[in-house]
Structure formats: structure tokens, C-alpha cells
């Protein structure tokens, strides 16, 4: 009977040792997965930064800086406003004269739909 108990004790010890090995293997696997995830996150961040840097270079090369674009738009607006002001100044007096002619030359007429009974 002692040999049976000893055999059972050995089986229990072997089972405990196997459970510890399985637990350790699971921990190693979890560490490897976490490490792989961290490495992937770091690689993704590097890729994102590289693409953003390339985009900013492309944008600067093809569009200029944002301040340059804004300054160009402001300059174009000023030129157009100056052109409008010149056009208004050259056409203002003849336009006012034409309007005054309509006001001064009123010819009273009876409307064509008016029926006098």
C-alpha cells in the first residue's frame, strides 16, 4: 500500500509540475504577445510620423506655406477691391446724371388699364 501512496504522490507531484510548466508557458506567451503588440504600436507610430513628414514636405513643395497662401489671397483681394473702387469712381458721375435725368424728366400719363367712366 505504501507503494501505491508513493505512486499517487509521484503522480500528484508530476501533475503539479506540469501545471506549473503550463502556467509558465502561458505567462511567456502573454509576455511575447504584449511585446509584439508594443513593437507593432511603435512601428505604426514611426510609420505615421514618416508619412506625416512626407505629406508636410509635399504640401510645402506644391502649395507653399499656409502663411504664403493666405498672404497671396489677401493680396489678390486688395487688387480686386482697388479695381472695383477705380471702376466706381470712373462710372459714378455718369450714373448719377442718368438717374437724375429720369427723376427730372417725368411725363405724367394715364395708365393703360385706367377706365374713366
Automatic annotation (TrEMBL):
Recorded GO cellular component terms are:
plasma membrane proton-transporting V-type ATPase complex; presynapse; vacuolar proton-transporting V-type ATPase, V1 domain
One GO-annotated biological process of the protein: synaptic vesicle lumen acidification
Keyword Ligase among record annotations: no
Q: Which domain of life is it from?
A: Eukaryota
Q: Identify this protein by name.
A: V-type proton ATPase subunit G
Any one Gene Ontology molecular-function term assigned to this protein's record: proton-transporting ATPase activity, rotational mechanism
Return the Pfam families for the record: V-ATPase_G
Keyword Secreted present in the record's keywords: the answer is no
Q: Which family does it belong to?
A: Belongs to the V-ATPase G subunit family.
Per UniProt, subunit arrangement is: V-ATPase is a heteromultimeric enzyme made up of two complexes: the ATP-hydrolytic V1 complex and the proton translocation V0 complex.
* Membrane-spanning ranges: none
Instruction: Write out the entry's keywords from A to Z.
Output: Coiled coil, Hydrogen ion transport, Hydrolase, Ion transport, Transport
Report which residue ranges the record marks as coiled coil: 8-57
Q: Which InterPro entries match?
A: V-ATPase_G
What is the protein's known function? Answer: Subunit of the V1 complex of vacuolar(H+)-ATPase (V-ATPase), a multisubunit enzyme composed of a peripheral complex (V1) that hydrolyzes ATP and a membrane integral complex (V0) that translocates protons. V-ATPase is responsible for acidifying and maintaining the pH of intracellular compartments and in some cell types, is targeted to the plasma membrane, where it is responsible for acidifying the extracellular environment.
